[in-house]
Amino acid sequence: MTAPGAAQPKASSRAGVRPIALLGRGLRTLAGALATPLVPEDFLDLIDPLRSGADLRGRVLAVEPEGPGATTLTIRPGRGWRPHRPGQYTRIGFDVDGVRRWRAYSITSPVGLPGIITVTVRAIDGGIVSHYVRDELRPGTVVHLDQATGDFVLPDAPPPAALFLTAGSGLTPVMGMLRNRPLPADVVVVHSAPTRRESLFLDELSALHDDGHIRLVTRFTADEGILRPADLDSVVPDWRDRHTWACGPTAMLDDAQAHWEAAGLADRLHTERFRPTVHAVGDGGAMTLARSGVTVDVDASTTMLDAGEDAGVLMPSGCRMGICFNCVLPLVEGSVRDLRTGDLTTATPEDPVLVQTCVSAPAGPCRLNH
Amino acid sequence: MNTTQTRTNRITTTTPQLREATTPGGKPNPIAHLTAEEIEGIGRELDALRDEVMNSRGADDAAYIRGVIKMQRWLEAASRLVLLFSKFPPAFVAGTAGLTVAKIIENTEIGHNILHGQWDWMRDEKIHSTTWEWDFASPAEQWKKSHNVEHHTYTNVVGMDNDLGYNILRVDPDQEWKLNHLFQPITNFFTALFFEYGIAAYDLDVKGWKEGTKDHKEFMADLKVALKKLRAQFAKDYVVHPLLSGPSALHTLAANAIANTARNVWTHAVIFCGHFPEGVETFETESIEGETRGEWYLRQMLGSANISGSKLMHLMSGNLSHQIEHHLFPDMPSNRYAQIAPRVQELMERHGLRYVTGPLHRQVASAWKKVFKYSLPNKRDGVSRLREVTDAAREGVDEVFRSTRGMLRPTRRRALPA
Questions:
Q1: Which fold has domain A285-368?
Q2: Could you say which residues from 6 to 45 on chain B have a Cβ atom under 8 Å away from some Cβ of chain A?
Q3: Which residues 237-296 in chain B show a CB within 8 A of chain A?
Q4: Which of A95, A99, A320 is closest, CB to CB, to B9?
Q5: Smallest CA–CA distance from A351 into chain B, residue
Q6: Which of A281, A352, B165, B277 is most deeply buried (CB count within 10 A of its CB)?
């Protein structure tokens, strides 16, 4: 998807452009020949890691607490950043204790802030990255970025009436939308959080409510219980007439989808699903080799290399004892255990990890890109 | 990887073997005084040491390798810039010296160690064994296969570790003597000068191809990759940078040639010191069958030698001055070898094992001594060595006559059955 405002190279047939383009290409070839086996960018990165044309990175400008359980980061992306659409997310790579870890976050800042985006990170129990962001990350740090992506956005022509149904940190992409103008003429926000104290952005939402931009309905589930789709009739009686954007825990979204489908209004519901970050960890498990189209059950003491070969897949291999690194393959989902040390390595589609298949066994269901 | 594909998984092997006082070849067995329990105890102790260090890797280690890479790139860029004016003697001297140091660090502390996967744990796609390419004749992929697999798995096993003499040197009495070993001091001297090309040929397994043990198609595919790399390497050092220097072209070309040759001589010396000095053990094929983890560790420790020296020495050798520690834990970040070295030495001495180390000049001299010593056949009672050499020479001359009669075509034997 092309973001609005992205610079598109204009086709030009004017004389004079061609020689310049040729010269540019020639210079690039020359620079490549000078730098081989590195690429010229490796040397340019020494001078300016945020320049245009560099791999996308960003500099953290501010790290601020957002209520008791969350942190808002202000980041200045490198010059290659393309403006996002409200509601989209980006992948951010942090170096935590020397290890690069990627996570996806919704962009909460309005479009068009000059060279700045913000994301809000909620602290998760045992979360390596969220705790690092809260406790250790300092302004000035360079982080790694992807371009903004995602379909959870308002259409270019917003519908006259919208309902935003959110829970917990599912509010963040919606916040990214609510901070832009124009909003749909008639907006209702139904937000659930465990308690008033833990609810993100409550002051800002209340201000929007008081100014008449939105109608805010809050539900504090510790006292009031979880909001069921059936409750909608009493909270937002005209929900059937609205386009709805919903973001929150999987169970909530499943319920919503069933409810909208039952009403024959499935096309009016737009959802954003955060992938579950908790993986089943066990001893052994089903190993899927995605490109080979093979899934096999592997016990806790059999290496993924052996299991793959036993299933008839040609696996890269070498020393078969964990020292030569010729067997590494990308683990894209699930956990594996190093048979030498018992250490667990976990990967998600946002944060794939290369693992040594000759000394690793599945620890729960896992998927390799091979 | 034909040789390794069918092998059973080595990490689960647990059969300790009988230890005789001497090896089948007649050499004293350096581990005869250890019981099987002691050997497995050593294995457990080293495993624990590995876990301790690997679990403590963190931001400081990451900052170290990034710092070295940054420093090396600045040094290389600055040296190349200075060499644009290499017609002026001070620029020539400073540029050549800087480029030599940059090229050495690029190969040793950076390239070699990244390709060992020492920094894979950072999950930085730019500093990773699967993506790194280095300023060296042999493509990273090919080197990783021959070096990391064959050499690091079969360290100093006669007939299995091709690094044991790089196919051409005889450095051990258990290696069969052939006529060409007579000239190995000269061969070795030229190997040092053109080291990277020797390694490239050896990674390609040119010898295996000639003898028919390496598949022809596979060889040609590898050769294509290697030639492409070689072309780019040559173009950079001997065409593009010189031409860019304009009037200083010839001086820059000379500077680049000197830097490459000096690096060849240096890396050859460092690697030469890793496994050939006096006191380093070699092993026989039988001795590694059913090898346990403890026995594998022992072979790595006894088959390697360190170089003592300053921090600069360790950096310039890519910490291969800690060859013993590197062979125990090839994927441990190189900046940690110095930290564990005293403990490895203590462990070896506690078990009556020799920790071979010494300053560079002594280790180089010791290794060269072997090259001279084993250029001649072994001393045996009742056999004149002069007679043995002259017989071999006569046979060799006959062979040349036979094979060149009528044609000058090299013979390619059929593939040997596996």
A1: Ubiquitin-like (UB roll) (3.10.20)
A2: 7-12
A3: 240-241, 244, 296
A4: A320
A5: B123
A6: B277
Residues of B in contact with A331 (CB under 8 A): none
- Is pLDDT at A362 greater than 50 in this prediction? yes
Q: Which residue of A has its CA nearest to B242?
A: A34
Q: What is the DSSP string of A243-296?
A: EEEEEE-HHHHHHHHHHHHHTT-GGGEEEEEPPP------SBEEEEETTTTEEE
Q: Give residue B396's pLDDT.
A: 84
Do B380 and B364 lie in one domain? The reply is: no
Task: List the domain range (segments joined by +) for residue B219.
Answer: 23-373
Question: Amino acid identity, residue B286?
Answer: E
Q: Map residue A305 onto helix, strand or coil.
A: helix
Q: How far, in Å, CA of B278 to CA of B357, rounded?
A: 10
User: Do A331 and A347 touch, CB atoms closer than 8 A?
Assistant: yes
Domain tally, chain B: 2
Place of tokens 């959870």: A152
pLDDT band of residue B343 (cuts 50, 70, 90) is very high
User: Is the CB of A36 inside 8 Å of chain B's CB atoms?
Assistant: yes
> How many angstroms away from the CA of B33 is the closest CA of chain A?
27
CATH architecture of A57-145: Beta Barrel (2.40)
pLDDT tens digits along A9-66:
444 445 556 888 888 899 999 999 999 999 999 999 999 988 888 889 999 999 999 9
Chosen from B2, B3, B7, B9 to mutate, greatest number of chain A CBs within 10 A: B9
Residues B165 and B129 in one domain: yes
pLDDT tens digit string along B126-141?
999 999 999 999 999 9
pLDDT at B16: 54
Q: List the one residue out of A169, A194, A173 whose CA is nearest residue A270.
A: A173
d(C-alpha B176, C-alpha A26), whole Å = 55
Please give the Cα distance from B263 to B279 (Å, whole number): 27
Residue whose C-alpha is closest to residue B245's, from B42, B68, B88, B50: B88
User: Which position has the token pair 């909270």?
Assistant: A235
Select from A155, A159, A161 the least CA-distant residue to A238: A161
Among B149, B225, B243, B296, pick the best mutation site for testing chain A contact (most A Cβ within 10 A).
B149
Is the Cβ pair B11, A320 closer than 8 Å?
Answer: yes
List the structure tokens of B219.
């060889």
